[in-house]
Amino acid sequence: MAHKYGATEIPIQLVSEDEDFPPERAAGDPLLGYLADFLKTVITRYCGDAWEQVQPGKPIIRTVHCDEPDSGFKEQDLPALYVYRPPRETREIIESFDDVADDYRFQHGRVVAVWIHDANPQEWRRVRNSIIDGVRKCVDACIRLGRDSSWVHPKDLELIGSPAAPRDPKAEAWGSSVCNWAGATIIELKNSAPGKYEHRMLKPAPMRTYEQLRFSFEIEERFVPDIGINTEPHETIRHQIVSPDQGTTLGDYLLGEDILDD
Fold first, then answer.
1. For 46, what's the count of Cα atoms within 13 Å in the CB-facing half-sphere?
2. Structural domain span for residue 94
3. Are 127 and 7 members of one domain?
4. 258: helix, coil or strand?
5. Are residues 256 and 206 in the same domain?
6. What is the mean pLDDT of residues 104-133?
């Protein structure tokens, strides 16, 4: 039993590397994993052929990371997609927790996605603007629709109910809902812009510059409490009862243990 904040379960669950669906491996923050995999899938589907003109034989996205580029940037990972929550200083400004009603509490925040690549400048210049604009429009369109037939969670096709029907009837034809699996009530692209990413591998090596395309998404996640979780004793938390006059220990009890009859 657990509370849920979006797709995040409380207590936080560590996810096994054996999970069938890769996005579920983003332990502690599944939204990042689902959004990253959805973006990689639709960008590859709709922009991969154009990318062939720039980098023949290379994928438009080679690796996906649920973290900031600076946390472990490697040139051999490029082209790479990084999906992460903004730094603490930024989140303090744009993030909030709000009660819409007594039982409706939401976290409003942002998630950033950055696509970084190392395409040869001369090759890139020929089709740079068309590819950048194409990727931006592709992401906006697919996020606006919330689904794409190229992205299907296998659990959406499981048969449930009687008579048997798939968990999500739209999934087979239209793809899975990224909002549903990411646990978000809102995922909306607010802005996107090309730019430069600078990184130095090791000092005193010179700073290297790479092309990047940065997206900023507005995210809304709802808190859904599990009313039964606080009635379950936790085996690792104990209460120590001490006599107030003498300071002597009267007993040591598990949280949730009935001590009134002792």
1. 23
2. 3-231
3. yes
4. coil
5. no
6. 79
Could you give the number of structural domains in the chain? 2
Angle 152-110-5 from CA coordinates, rounded to 5°: 65
Asked if 78 and 208 count as a contact pair (C-beta separation under 8 A), the reply is no
154 and 178 part of one domain: yes
Tell me if residue 81 falls in helix, strand or coil.
Answer: strand
User: Could you report the per-residue pLDDT of 215-252, keeping only the tens digit for each?
Assistant: 999 999 888 777 766 655 555 545 455 555 555 544 55
Same domain for 199 and 73? yes
Residue 260: what pLDDT? 47
Residues 120, 61 within the same domain:
yes
Q: How confident is the model at residue 257 (pLDDT cuts 50, 70, 90)?
A: very low
Task: Give the DSSP per-residue string, 61-73.
Answer: --EEESS-GGGT-
Which of 7-16, 24-33, 89-98, 194-203 is most confident?
Answer: 194-203
Check pLDDT > 60 for residue 86: yes
Q: Are residues 156 and 188 in the same domain?
A: yes
| Secondary structure (DSSP) of 124-186 | HHHHHHHHHHHHHHHHHHHHHH---TT---GGGGSEETTTTEESSTTHHHH---HHHHHTEEE
Cα–Cα distance for residue pair 92/87, rounded to 1 Å: 9
- 88 and 155 share one domain: yes
pLDDT above 90 covers a percentage of the chain that reads 36
Total Cβ atoms within 10 A of residue 67: 14
Task: pLDDT band for 193, please (50, 70, 90 cuts).
Answer: very high
- Note whether 107 and 147 are same-domain residues: yes
